[in-house]
Amino acid sequence: MKVAGLGFKKDVTLASLREALAAAGGPAGLAAVATVSDKADAEALKLLARECGVPIKAVPVDVLSGIATPTQSTLIMERFGTGSLAEAAALAAAGPRARLIASRAVSQDRSATAAIAEGDGT
Predict the structure, then answer these.
(1) Which strand ranges, in their side-by-side order, compose the sheet holding 99-106?
(2) Per residue in 70-102, pLDDT tens?
(3) Residues 17, 55: Cα–Cα separation, whole Å
(4) Angle, to 10 degrees, between the axis of helix 43-52 and the axis of helix 14-24?
């Protein structure tokens, strides 16, 4: 199961999410997109999921907290307890033995990040 984790600013656009996802490897083969629960109902994310034909997996912040990620952001660590929201969401949603196949990629306007993980989904 291949999952794209997404982190983004409140006013993110569909174009920024698309760009970050493309930079991380694109939507081919994705089973889902994932983000922290309080961002899962963002309109741009819903549009991206519909475009990719995949569901959105909402990951509770307490699940993200403590997930080790190769990319480290002080701001994200303070807010979510992990170094990269996109990487942690991808890993959490892809299952307990998931591994990153694309680390965090950032849109040019810096409003969206994406990472892709592969796992068994359980």
Answers:
(1) 56-59, 30-36, 2-8, 112-118, 99-106
(2) 999 999 999 999 999 999 999 999 998 999 999
(3) 15
(4) 50
